[in-house]
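From the shared-data thread, chain only:
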Amino acid sequence: MSVIVLTLIIMAGAYAAGLLGSLTGLGGGVVIIPLLTIVLHVNIHYAIGASLISVIATSSGSAAAYVREGITNIRIGMFLEIATTMGAFVGAMLALYVHTGFIAVLFGAILIFSAVMSLKKKAEVINGQPSKAAALLKLSGSYPNGNETTTYGVQRVGGGFAMMLFAGIISGLLGIGSGALKVIAMDTIMRIPFKVSTTTSNFMIGVTAAASAVVYLQRGYIDPGLSMPVVIGVLLGALTGSKILVHTQSSQWLRWMFAIVVTFLAVQMMYNGITGKI
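Structure, as tokens:
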């Protein structure tokens, strides 16, 4: 396989990853890492390094559009980034000493858990009244929903902050941006509308990934030749996804797409981790 063909394959896969990451708040790493490790047999540490760079590109590509449209809750994002950034440093340090097979199995387990949790809540419930902590921190907000503006209140701030700390550790350990766990923390625990949680997750994942990427860069696990097509593809996909989501009325189809894609990838990663192919 020539360098040009390999670059085009990586770029096409990265485009799909960026599109999915932008629509669901995943960050793209859930597609990039299986593509590089399973299909192209790249060392998982280098795959994680490239994935972290792609996560930053996804956040940069889609976050601006969501903020401009008024969907992203910037105040929530800035508050929860405190937890994810601290966790990301811890996770990135752990990843350098953990066996690659264990990382692959953990990756799959996290994705399956994320898929189940995303489908558990069938109907979206908008809370009008915030908790005392949310009111004190002024975390509640509103977002455009078609021709209307929907106002929501934030619940269980402490639980969401704790989940974000865990999400940061997983981000540094697995290189997936931990967008899946961020969405769950905001959607299920803090009861933020799914559309707001996915867009706020996209806003946050770039900062989380940047904290982890510093450690991988110092250890030499970020290859420019591998990261370049990944970043270009993911950025284009993220821009496409942001245009689609802004004009989407229902989020239920996003939940199903989220669940189906990550479950398939999770099974592949766990199988290859257990059999020692990664």
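The chain has eleven helices and two strands.
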